[in-house]
Amino acid sequence: MQYACSMSQDERSAGDLRNTGMSLRHDRTWDYELERIVEAVEERDAEKVGMQFPEGLKRRAPHVADDLRELLPDGVRVMISGKPCYGACDLDTYMMRRTDVFVHFGHSPMKDSEKIIYVPLFSNVEVTPIMEDALEELETGDVGLVTTAQHMNKFEQMREWLEERGFTVHTRRGDERLTHEGQVLGCNYASADIDADQVLYVGGGKFHPVGLAMEHPEKNVVIADPVNNVVTVADHEQFMKQRYASVHKAMDAEKWGVIFCTKIGQGRWEQANEIVENNDNAYLITMDEVTPDRLRNFDMDAFVNTGCPRITTDDGPRFHKPMLTPGEYECAVGNKPLDEMEFDTFHGTW
Ligand code: SF4
């Protein structure tokens, strides 16, 4: 299972709460911003429109295509990308080149381009009721505030709500990989580099806050999840244990597969090549989807993934051989002490 960055597995499965003991508080509806797409088609005199959806919303794609076709002039063709999509790092470049308007749903822009229309699909869920519940886990005083692209439309409301309750709210826009102040991605928590020992994450699922807790183990990360209607504190211990176990297993490895991911926003070419240049037993493997199945036939002792760090940390145990981040690789081969091991983050775009 791979994870979407701004629409996590937990979020994707929200609604199916049969075994969770939780109750869903709201109905989900999304605004696909079809008028904006129609305007772009008219402005550009477009003949072909491409649409790309995150995994959790692919089932809605034919309905959106139907609605759009009704609004568009006859003769404009609407196409749907079947390529897996886990973030704005993951644009269908093949389709992009072959369409006049390319619409990417579900993620905020990682890089602006005239060709692409990003439709973020803001959530309509109310956030303050679950923030009220989260107060029990927060100490009054300084607090960092972060969220995902889906809840960005409520960010100012969240900030004001906390300030009205006496908190000093710290926020920042991380770096150019992030569109908004306070936004986090599964691979980038620069927005949480703030002067506060506690951070409130308001958003669906644990995917983002657990990454945040791994990146900032010194901070208390409180999760107010308005999607699943639950408050928890992010626990990164289990993940860290898994990471140490993988590094230990890889310490005896001789043959290394070094993965360069060809997805447009996941390439770290220099880093991948540097590893290969400095290790005669390392082989550069280029690939798009990094999955256990695709690596199984390679006769390697261990892998280093320079693509999405969350494939490594979250899916790592599913691979047949240890799968490490570049930083973990440095520890496994003895270039760095184990206690300097850090959570892998991704900066920059492409
Ligand atoms: S590289 Fe980052 S933005 Fe892309 S899917 Fe992974 S965590 Fe999300």
TrEMBL record:
Top-rank lineage group of the source organism: Archaea
Gene3D superfamilies (alphabetical): Diphthamide synthesis DPH1/DPH2 domain 1 (3.40.50.11840), Diphthamide synthesis DPH1/DPH2 domain 2 (3.40.50.11850), Diphthamide synthesis DPH1/DPH2 domain 3 (3.40.50.11860)
Main function: Catalyzes the first step of diphthamide biosynthesis, i.e. the transfer of the 3-amino-3-carboxypropyl group from S-adenosyl-L-methionine (SAM) to the C2 position of the imidazole ring of the target histidine residue in translation elongation factor 2 (EF-2).
Stated family: Belongs to the DPH1/DPH2 family.
One Gene Ontology MF term: metal ion binding
One GO BP: protein histidyl modification to diphthamide
Native source organism of the sequence: Halarchaeum rubridurum
Keywords: 4Fe-4S, Iron, Iron-sulfur, Metal-binding, S-adenosyl-L-methionine, Transferase
Record InterPro entries: DPH1/DPH2, DPH1/DPH2_1, DPH1/DPH2_2, DPH1/DPH2_3, DPH1/DPH2_euk_archaea, Dph2_arc
EC number(s) per entry: 2.5.1.108
Pathway: Protein modification; peptidyl-diphthamide biosynthesis
Reaction catalyzed: L-histidyl-[translation elongation factor 2] + S-adenosyl-L-methionine = 2-[(3S)-amino-3-carboxypropyl]-L-histidyl-[translation elongation factor 2] + S-methyl-5'-thioadenosine + H(+)
The protein's name in its UniProt record: 2-(3-amino-3-carboxypropyl)histidine synthase
Cofactors: [4Fe-4S] cluster
Record's keyword annotation contains Membrane: no
